């Protein structure tokens, strides 16, 4: 369940960054934010409200206030990852590495991104990344 806690923490941190940027913080300032124990339930509730899945409703038809563990469980149960989202994440990571290498004064003409490869779901897949460096 450690992965679930990390996922919740990532979602909450992203919500805090989103709020920081909306309130005028620069991207670097928003990136440096940390989530305190007091902020976590408030930010998790904001993530829960923004999530696109049917919520528990009260008699008035309004979204019901539920506990933090219930929100965490519903968010994880309704989290869907599409093939296009995986592809976009792979491309973003590749761009981040390329941009970092460019910031080290490597010439852009020598930096190339390969196409992200989809891995078939055979049950034996393990998360990994490959970085190939070649000199010509």
**Shape by Cα distribution:** elongated
Summed up, the domain count is 2
What percentage of the residues does DSSP assign to strands (E)?
under 5%
Unreliable segments (pLDDT under 50, ≥5 consecutive)? none
Number of strands: 0
3D architecture notes:
This protein has 136 residues and is mainly α. It folds into two domains: 2-77, no CATH class; 82-121, no CATH class. Helix content is 51%, strand content 0%. It is built from five helices and no strands. It is elongated and about 70 Å long.
Task: List the defining traits of the structure above.
single chain, 136 residues, mainly alpha, 2 domains, 0% strand, elongated
Précis, in short:
By secondary structure, the protein is an all-alpha fold.
Give the secondary structure arrangement, pairings included.
Layout: H1 2-22, H2 27-31, H3 39-50, H4 68-77, H5 83-103
Helix pairs in contact: 1-3, 3-4
